[in-house]
Amino acid sequence: MLTINRDICGYCGCCVAVCPEGALELIDAYLSLEGDCISCGICARACPLGALEVVHEE
Amino acid sequence: MKNRYDVLVVGGGPAGALAARTAAEAGLSACLVEKRPAIGTPVRCAEGIGKELLKDFIEPDERWIAADIRRARIIAPSGDTIKLEQHQAGNEVGYVIDRKVFDRELVWRAAEAGSDVFVKTRAVAPIMENGAVKGARLLACGQPVDVRADVVVAADGVESKFARWAGLDTTVPLGDMMSCAQYLMTDIPIDAESTDFYLGRDIAPEGYLWVFPKGDRTANVGIGISGRQSRDGSRARHYLDRFVAENFPDGKVIEHIVGGVSVCKPLPCTVADGLMIAGDAARVVDPITGGGIFNAMFTGRMAGQVASECISAGDCSAGALMKYDEAWRVSRMGKTIERNYKVKDYFVTLDDAKLNTLAASLANIDMKEFKVSTLIMELIKRNPKMLMELRALKNSLA
Ligand SMILES: Cc1cc2nc3c(=O)[nH]c(=O)nc-3n(C[C@H](O)[C@H](O)[C@H](O)COP(=O)(O)OP(=O)(O)OC[C@H]3O[C@@H](n4cnc5c(N)ncnc54)[C@H](O)[C@@H]3O)c2cc1C
Ligand code: SF4
Ligand code: SF4
User: Fold this and answer.
1) Does the pTM of the predicted model rise above 0.80?
2) Residue A9 is part of which domain span?
3) Residue B79, CA distances (Å) to B83, B88, B162, B235, B375 in order
4) Using omega within 30 degrees of 0 as the cis cutoff, is the peptide bond preceding B42 cis?
5) Is residue B247 part of a domain?
6) Residues with Cβ within 6 A of ligand 2?
7) Is residue B66, in this structure, part of any structural domain at all?
8) Where is the 4Fe-4S ferredoxin-type domain (chain A) (predicted)?
9) Are B260 and A17 a contacting pair at CB < 8 A?
10) Per-chain mean pLDDT for chain A
11) Distance from the CA of B193 to the center of ligand 1, in angstroms?
12) Residue that wins the pLDDT comparison between A22 and B72
């Protein structure tokens, strides 16, 4: 599951562009998970600030 | 807002502004929608642009020129510096601008030309009929509205989704995404007439760090690293903080900027039935410099021109709009992107030792005019030990 830390996020859209599923959407200053996320973690890698994390549930 | 326009432009950056202005100037009804409440903010840019490149679009105005630049310096990991004076560096040296004012000015021009403009209005889906784009579903301050158009120009920037919704794959490969962080800093000791580029694995892996002055003691201090190199504990922001702590410990940060720059190849096709894609959304950033303001204005204007031709001819199919795709690809901008992608692919493989060697070999170079091709020839002449790889690079560009 992808978690978004909105206190860290700088709403730049970098993650949106690398998501292979098109699952993220930047609504002005609010990053939102709108589509089906496959938890690949690519967005979390690209983020300049480290606002995203894929949390694997046990 | 009307429910029908000739051209609907999604995105109020430089690409969208030029598309809307060009369409309106050609006598079409045009509408530009921008999801943010204000054009131009937050800024996601280092704001450097060549003077020559601007000329074609807008006359210089002190309201948005923050600094007039005389030279560029490239600093190798060893500290060796390659200095390019204005007469050599041409397009690489110019102005550092104020995008908040500049972007607004561009949108004002579009409005002045007759285009409608709506902010806080987000495109949420294309209207599709028989596989063709016929307009867009918008949320205007939260209110759903359907707007039909003969042509939609997707100028929705790096986070572009519109073309994807219409069926094109616009994903940027992680390694070709520059993950960027920047501080607008004040009270720092800088050369206010020089744009500085720092290279090196420890400074900015597969990228570079920049200091672009915006006044006497003020500058955009930023960094882009490849997404491939970005991970917990070593993200763009961490590299930037380290550089700032070492070089500008007493500086004050008055603006915090983050962003992504796509330094991939452009989209394989930038049109579909009823749809054109321009600017960052088309992935037309220069892969070496990461510069995209000019490319956005250039493709935006061209999209506006071709849209107006196709609308008067009554054919907005992908086949007719394809003229736009072909024209930018064969333009100087298109050729430069193609070449610079290859050059970038080579340069990101260099370790610091090689970067130092190359920089040292160029120490007293005096090129009449800075050109990538001349530079590579000089590097070949001066670095016999790296002859093979440099020649391979040169041949790949031929
Ligand atoms: C850190 C950084 C430094 C840079 N430095 C430079 C530089 O020094 N020089 C240079 O030339 N370039 C630079 N660039 C690149 C430059 O900023 C971009 O290439 C340029 O802004 C592209 O213009 P555009 O119009 O295509 O997109 P943008 O300027 O990104 O505009 C797109 C607009 O579309 C809007 N939008 C998106 N989706 C929707 C939607 N669904 N509905 C409505 N509106 C939408 C967005 O809010 C945005 O305002 C830099 C980029 C970054 C991130
Ligand atoms: S890349 Fe990071 S900072 Fe940028 S919008 Fe995504 S989560 Fe936010
Ligand atoms: S984890 Fe993968 S699929 Fe999920 S939002 Fe991030 S990039 Fe997209």
Assistant:
1) yes
2) 2-54
3) 12, 21, 44, 23, 20
4) yes
5) yes
6) A 9-15, 26, 31, 47, 49, 51-52; B 258
7) no
8) 1-29, 34-57
9) yes
10) 96
11) 25
12) A22
B364-389: pLDDT as tens digits? 777 666 677 788 888 898 998 899 89
Query: What mean pLDDT is predicted for residues A6-12?
Result: 97
Would you place residue B106 in the very low, low, confident or very high pLDDT band (cuts 50, 70, 90)? very high
Alpha-carbon gap, residue B187 to B233, rounded angstroms = 28
Give the residue from B262, B280, B313 where a domain finishes.
B262
* Enclosing domain of residue B32: 4-44+100-172+266-330
Q: What is d(CA B226, CA A20) in angstroms, rounded to the nearest whole number?
A: 17
Of A25, A42, A50, A37, nearest to B172 by C-alpha is A42
Please give the C-alpha separations between residue B204 and each of A9, B49, B197, B212, in angstroms, as whole numbers.
21, 21, 10, 16
- Tens-digit pLDDT profile for residues B246-296: 999 999 999 999 999 999 999 999 999 999 999 999 999 999 999 999 999
In a domain, B38, yes or no: yes
- Is B15 labelled a binding residue? yes
Position in ligand 3 atom list of the atom nearest CA A24: 5
Whether residue B46 is annotated as binding a ligand: the answer is yes
